[in-house]
Design goal:
The structure holds three protein chains of three kinds.
Chain A lengths: L5 H18 L8 H23 L4 E9 L9 E7 L1 H26 L6 H19 L4 H19 L7 H32 L14 H10 L14 H19 L8 H4 L5 H10 L1 H11 L1 H5 L2 H22 L5 H21 L3 H28 L12 H4 L1 H15 L5 H19 L2 H29 L6 H4 L6 H16 L6 H7 L3 E2 L2 E2 L2 H7 L7 H6 L4 H6 L9 H27 L13 H7 L4 H46 L7 H23 L3
Antiparallel strand pairs in A: 1-2, 3-4
Helix pairs in contact in A: 1-2, 1-4, 2-3, 2-4, 3-4, 3-10, 3-15, 3-21, 4-5, 5-6, 6-8, 8-11, 8-13, 10-11, 10-15, 11-14, 11-15, 13-14, 13-19, 14-15, 14-18, 14-19, 15-17, 15-18, 15-21, 17-19, 17-21, 18-19, 18-26, 19-26, 22-26
Chain B lengths: L4 H18 L2 H24 L14 E11 L3 E9 L3 H19 L7 H20 L3 H22 L4 H28 L10 H9 L15 H19 L8 H8 L2 H26 L1 H4 L2 H23 L4 H22 L2 H32 L7 E2 L6 H14 L6 H14 L7 H9 L1 H17 L4 E2 L10 H19 L2 H11 L16
Chain C lengths: L4 H21 L3 H26 L3 H31 L13
Helix pairs in contact in C: 1-2, 2-3
């Protein structure tokens, strides 16, 4: 069976976009059903794709030529589809979350009587389309194009409530900050195209023998000469590192890594279902997914990997500390998102390809769950987001509570919820490669580990403040009920957040020494990602004896005692810290009328509350540096550049007005001048001609 | 069958102009539109049946070529009527006809006096524009080139805003001085090289200059060798065309002209007139005098002009609070990309530059029209005077948003295609030393452009509704919105399928860069 | 016995200078016109003198042309002077300065 239906996976949401935009206002739910049907269809087709991939098939084909067809150029720019285990997995995640978000929106938007819903559903449709097309893009240019479209959709949806002042501003910030990252990405795309165009037919492709990661690998390995590459005077590996880091600029922007993370908390101005979509499955995930997608290219560059790991580890800790002091439920979740994507970057940089993807998957489930849960709470609280005004919601909304709790346990990394398994694997990979290869990774690991109790603390602070204790406001005493369309997505995601971790139970495998327990695979995701298109799978990246990270970055596992001991130590350590953090957060805030214990942090709290003044310096860069510079340029332009132009005309006018005074208008004067001229001429001719 | 289509195209405009001049003002708009649909139809037919290969100046097979003797000057010189289209000029001809028709439609609302003269002049200008893009004899070309100036001067000077006289005279004098420099340089090129050139036929000039047999002492000025002479001519031509583009630092006439000009005139000014400059540069500087452009020092100088135009123009746009000035300065920035693509002298570079001309014509036309539609309703263009317009004019604002994102280079819209081609072409250009640096610096323009357009949109379109003028905000009439949607459709079409135009452009660009595949990108260590 | 040509030239130069003096010193338009006539006639004297000197008729033909021209000039000149008088109430040439800057 072929993958002929594959284009439809992305195109269905595009159709729903068109429907919602054109006739949405005349449809019963303003386009929601079109969106639900489209994303549902995408989900089914994605499941079909996964089934086929499970059967060992994959798909890497150029669909159409976008530009540069035929003779005359070396570079054909194409659109294609690449379905391998990685993108198939991501397709499921994206279409599932998008589907659930559409359903949830019925409750969050339609039932709340919002206006402008066709625009909302059109935005969701376009968002889903862009992300799906990005996920199975077969080449870097296509990925970039849909990456940018994802940015546009985030702008549209974050600024959905455009009649207020804050959302348009937040939307602008989100687009601008990510655009800053995308600038580097675009330089990287252009650089990759130019570098590899001389050497291969498909310089931008992700997979295949002629793709840029494979060529880069062959060049660095020495099995292929660098003669046909344009490396602008750099050694090939150095140049690949530069290109990789340029592309990473886009990743840092979209995945909200330090220092381009500042847009994400502001993006909470958008409707909550949109936040769920952005954070769990689309925009923010796109960055990390891109690193995984072109992992082969990063794997040949130890410096790039180290930077990815370090940025990830730092962001994980950095963002987690800010989450501790926030008052609004969505703000806490926003910082947790930044922090969790830091873990994924840490994993990828530390050679834990599978761990990174694993965490990407589990996080998608539990973060979507938490956001939708928060959305449910916000509906109940009549759009109040401050946690200090909630409390005691546990009894009044049990479905939301229990699912939210499942998500929180997963986020905190408590056994046996999904987050535990994936976060544990991330830290394990960082630890063993840190021990075996580079102390630099150990530092990143330490930051990641330190973030574990902090994460658990703020998570349970959030749970306690929201659901436990006693109702602190009237709204919390009498919450607005929610319907099936809110509960259904919560339940689905709650189950997933609980069980998704069982896909990859590395510690259990190590403990049992067997990869299967009877017929049940214990590390299904591991096996899933290990195979796939040649050269583009985990086996090749990290697992094999001669894997890329081992060969080029020198990543070797090092252990404390034996492998098993290290595994258990790592798991125990992170679990222990998580439990300590969770209990602390629960105990401190599980009171009828809790007090803000983080006040004890003193001035540190102010720093955290103000996000380490990251926003301030970026706003200063925009308003304090760029804007005055632009004003200066404008004054220079008006004064000097245009001044010269106007000056030329003024000088002409002035000299004209002086010279014309000679023209008295009196004929006698002219005659006298003529006569005088004649006499002067005569004398001159006479003197020169020797008359005298 | 003899189809003198180009002549028919120009004649249709002239006849249309004459007819429109004579009808009463009440019907002038409709007659003008109808008259402009004729050349649009012809151009569409030409685009659809276009069959040509190679570059017009480099012995390519042209489409719709016509050549006959026009005026004889003594025995030595004959002025030939020589017109024809290749893959570079065809899209620009199509662009001119499309934008003229849409500009006429968009003029229905704002132009409320002397209509017949207005539409007549617009059609007259269209004739001259089409002549510029199709003429292949220098003399004919120059007549058309100057012929564009006169109606433009009148259009700004009569129908413009409060400072229209200042703006019109500045525009006219500035561009005329530039024309003078260009004319002198060109005549020097034709007559200053002994018997080597001695013709006004542009393909023949290009061929003659391309030959290596020019005597070293051909220039009749002592101490001036042929190479230096050519560089001087190149510089004078670059200045002459650079004013039109406009290249920083010769750009200051542009914002004044745009601010004062009525919207439809701005549309044509930004959409087509600026392209005359880059088109002429492509033909003269980078085809006829391509060996000068291959001089590394010249290339660096031109590259600097390009990069400075991009960044400086964008910075200036950032400092403006008049919507039209914002768009005007961002045109300076966008045209910088065109120069960058041209100096790259690669298939993607020059082809991308040409594509960017078409794309920028559509997008800047779109944005000027949107600003005009908003102005028609609000009677203000100042950012601080309004906010929350999205609440009242959803369709217009939707188009504004789409146009702004197209300007920022959003993928699947034509702006991205043009910019990406230019960047790919220039990044590894073998012609431009340190091309990656020039490219990367210019690319930063895409961040700044996003900055000021997003800022302007946030302030004017979103937030709570507020309008600080004495006017009631009405709904934009259909004839205002229709051209917007048409342009947007074209922008998206060219963004999704750029090869519609890019294929023919590439075909005409190939001979300029040697036609070698390896020169396409300038790859190679 | 023929009068040497230098004598005619001296006469013509004298007449020309009288005319020039008139133009430079007088403000009355009629005097202006008469001075111009004097200068023209000085030229006529030269024409006729050289015609005789060279022995051909070209100079005399030109002198006739000049006479015709002078007649036309006087006609127009007097017309202008009349208009001048009508507009300015005087025939002073320094008064009419309306068309300068």
């Amino acid at each position: 069976m072929s993958f002929e239906y594959a284009p439809a996976i992305a195109l269905l949401p595009l159709v729903s976009f068109a429907i919602a935009l054109t006739v949405g206002s005349r449809m019963p739910k303003k386009g929601a059903f079109a969106g639900i049907a489209a994303t549902g269809g995408s989900l089914l087709l994605s499941l079909l794709a996964v089934r086929q991939v499970a059967g060992g098939e994959h798909h890497n084909e150029e669909l159409l030529v976008w530009a540069g067809a035929g003779a005359g150029t070396e570079l054909e720019l194409t659109f294609g589809i690449l379905i391998d285990p990685l993108s198939a997995l991501m397709l499921i995640i994206v279409s599932l979350v998008a589907f659930l978000v559409h359903v949830f929106s019925l409750g969050y938007m339609n039932d709340e009587g919002e206006v402008g819903l066709p625009r909302y559903y059109a935005g969701l449709g376009l968002f889903t389309f862009s992300m799906l097309a990005f996920v199975y893009a077969s080449n870097l240019l296509q990925a970039f194009m849909f990456f940018e479209l994802v940015g546009l959709c985030s702008w549209l949806l974050i600024g959905f409530w455009f009649r207020e002042a804050a959302p348009p501003s937040a939307a602008k910030k989100a687009f601008l900050v990510t655009r800053f990252g995308d600038f580097f990405f675009l330089v990287g795309v252009v650089g990759v195209a130019v570098t590899f165009a001389g050497a291969t037919e498909t310089p931008l492709a992700f997979a295949g023998a002629e793709s840029f990661p494979v060529v880069a690998e062959e060049v660095v390995e020495g099995s292929m000469g660098a003669g046909e590459l344009a490396t602008f005077g750099f050694a090939p590996q150095t140049w690949f590192t530069i290109l990789g880091l340029l592309v990473l600029g886009g990743v840092v922007g979209k995945s909200a890594q330090f220092p381009l993370h500042t847009w994400l908390p502001d993006a909470m101005e958008g409707p909550t279902p949109v936040s769920a979509l952005i954070h769990a499955a689309t925009m923010v995930a796109a960055g990390v997914f891109l690193v995984a997608r072109m992992y082969g290219f990063y794997a040949v560059s130890p410096q790039a990997l180290a930077i990815i790991a370090f940025v990830g580890g730092f962001t994980a800790l950095f963002a987690a500390t800010m989450g501790v002091v926030k008052d609004e439920i969505k703000q806490v979740l926003a910082y947790s998102t930044i922090s969790q994507y830091g873990y994924m970057m840490l994993a990828l940089g530390a050679g834990g390809y599978i761990a990174g993807v694993f965490h990407l998957m589990t996080h998608a489930f539990f973060k979507a769950l938490l956001f939708l849960g928060a959305g449910s709470v916000i509906i109940a609280m009549h759009h109040e987001e401050d946690m200090w005004k909630m409390g005691g919601l546990k009894q009044k909304m049990p479905v939301t509570y229990w699912t939210f709790l499942a998500g929180s346990l997963a986020l905190a990394g408590i056994f046996p919820f999904a987050g535990f398994w994936s976060k544990d694997e991330v830290l394990f990979e960082a630890l063993v490669h840190g021990l075996g290869a580079s102390p630099f990774l150990l530092a990143a690991y330490a930051m990641g580990l330190l973030a574990v109790p902090v994460t658990a603390f703020y998570t349970f602070r959030m749970v306690s403040l929201t659901f436990h204790g006693e109702a602190r406001t009237e709204a919390a005493e009498d919450p607005h009920g929610v319907r099936w369309n809110v509960k259904f997505p919560l339940v689905v995601l709650g189950v997933l957040a609980t069980v998704a971790g069982f896909l990859n139970m590395v510690p259990v495998v190590k403990l049992l020494g067997a990869s299967h327990l009877g017929p049940i695979p214990l590390e299904a995701l591991h096996d899933w990602l290990a195979h796939g298109i040649e050269g583009v799978n985990a086996e090749h990246y990290t697992l094999a004896d001669e894997s890329l990270t081992h060969e080029f970055a020198g990543y070797t596992a090092g252990y404390v005692g034996s492998e098993l001991v290290t595994t258990l130590l790592s798991a125990g350590l992170s679990l222990g810290l998580a439990v300590v953090g969770a209990i602390a957060g629960y105990r401190l805030y599980d009171a009828p009328d809790p007090t803000e214990h983080t006040d004890r942090l003193g001035s540190m709290k102010t720093v955290l509350y103000d996000n380490y003044y990251q926003d301030e310096y970026q706003v200063w860069l925009a308003e304090g540096v760029t804007a005055p510079l632009a004003q200066l340029a404008n004054r220079f332009d008006q004064g000097v550049v245009d001044g010269v132009v106007d000056g030329v005309s003024s000088v002409s006018l002035l000299s004209g007005s002086r010279v014309r005074r000679i023209q008295t208008g009196v004929v006698s004067n002219y005659a006298a001048l003529i006569t005088a001229g004649l006499i002067v001429l005569l004398i001159a001719v006479g003197v020169l001609g020797g008359w005298f | 069958m003899v189809l003198v289509l180009i002549e028919a195209l120009i004649a249709a405009c002239l006849v249309g102009a004459a007819v429109t001049f004579m009808v009463p003002d009440r019907y002038a708009g409709k007659v003008g539109l109808a008259a402009s649909l004729v050349p649009l139809g012809i151009a569409t037919y030409m685009f659809a049946t276009f069959e040509a290969s190679g570059n017009a100046l480099m012995g390519g097979q042209l489409a719709f070529e016509e050549q006959f003797q026009w005026v004889t000057l003594g025995e030595a010189y004959a002025l030939n009527w020589h017109v024809g289209l290749d893959g570079i000029s065809m899209p620009l001809v199509a662009l001119s006809t499309v934008l003229t028709s849409l500009a006429i439609l968009s003029a229905w609302t704002p132009i409320d006096e002397r209509q017949s003269q207005f539409y007549g002049l617009v059609l007259f200008m269209e004739a001259a524009l089409l002549g510029v893009f199709s003429a292949l004899d220098f003399f004919v070309w120059f007549v058309f080139w100057e012929g564009v100036l006169v109606p433009m001067y009148v259009l700004i000077g009569v129908w413009g805003g409060p400072r229209r006289k200042y703006a019109a005279i500045k525009f006219f004098v500035y561009t005329n001085v530039a024309s003078l420099a260009m004319f002198i340089a060109f005549v020097a090129l034709v007559f200053g090289l002994g018997d080597a050139v001695d013709t006004f036929d542009m393909p023949a000039i290009a061929a003659a200059l391309g030959e290596t047999g020019i005597q070293a002492d051909a220039v009749p000025v002592p101490g001036l060798d042929v190479e230096t002479f050519k560089i001087l001519v190149f510089a004078a031509l670059f200045f002459g065309f650079g004013v039109k583009v406009p290249v920083v630092p010769w750009h200051t006439w542009l914002p004044d002209a745009h601010v004062e000009a009525p919207t439809p005139v701005s549309v044509l000014l930004a959409g087509v007139l600026l392209k005359m400059g880059t088109y002429a540069m492509l033909r003269f500087n980078f085809t006829m005098l391509a060996d000068v452009a291959r001089d590394p020092n010249v290339a660096v100088a031109v590259g600097l002009f390009a990069a400075v135009s991009v960044i400086y123009g964008a910075m200036l746009a950032l400092a403006q609070s008049d919507l039209k000035r914002i768009v005007a300065y961002s045109s300076v920035s966008s045209m910088g990309y065109v120069i960058l693509g041209l100096i790259a002298l690669t298939v993607y570079g020059v082809g991308g530059a040409t594509f960017q001309m078409v794309s920028h014509g559509l997008i800047s036309g779109l944005l000027f029209m949107v600003v005009g539609v908003i102005y028609n309703q609000t009677h203000t263009r100042m950012v601080q005077d309004m906010s929350g317009l999205a609440d009242r004019m959803p369709v217009t604002v939707g188009v504004f948003v789409a146009g702004a994102f197209a300007y920022m280079g959003l993928p699947l819209m034509s702006g991205f295609a043009g910019e990406f081609f230019v960047f790919v072409g220039s990044f590894g250009s073998p012609n431009l030393p340190s091309s990656p640096v020039f490219t990367a610096v210019s690319m930063f323009g895409i961040v700044v452009v996003a900055g000021y357009l997003l800022w302007a949109m946030q302030r004017t379109l979103f937030g709570p509704f507020r309008l600080e003028t004495d006017y009631e905000l009405g709904r934009a009439p259909v004839q205002d919105v229709l051209p917007l949607l048409a342009l947007l459709a074209l922008v998206v079409l060219l963004g999704v399928a750029p090869d519609l135009a890019f294929e023919m452009i590439r075909d005409a660009v190939n001979p300029m860069v040697g036609g070698e595949v390896s020169a396409a990108l300038g790859g190679g260590a | 016995m023929a009068v040497p040509v230098e004598y005619y030239l001296l006469l013509s130069a004298a007449v020309f200078c009288v005319g020039l003096f008139g133009i430079l010193t007088r403000r009355n338009a009629l005097m202006f016109l008469m001075s111009v006539e004097l200068m023209l006639n000085a030229a006529n004297i030269n024409f006729v003198a050289f015609s005789q000197y060279w022995g051909n008729l070209t100079g005399q033909v030109f002198a006739l042309f000049v006479l015709a021209l002078a007649a036309a000039e006087v006609a127009i000149g007097i017309g202008i002077i009349l208009v001048l008088y009508r507009n300015f109430g005087d025939v002073d040439v320094t008064l009419a300065r309306e068309m300068r800057w």
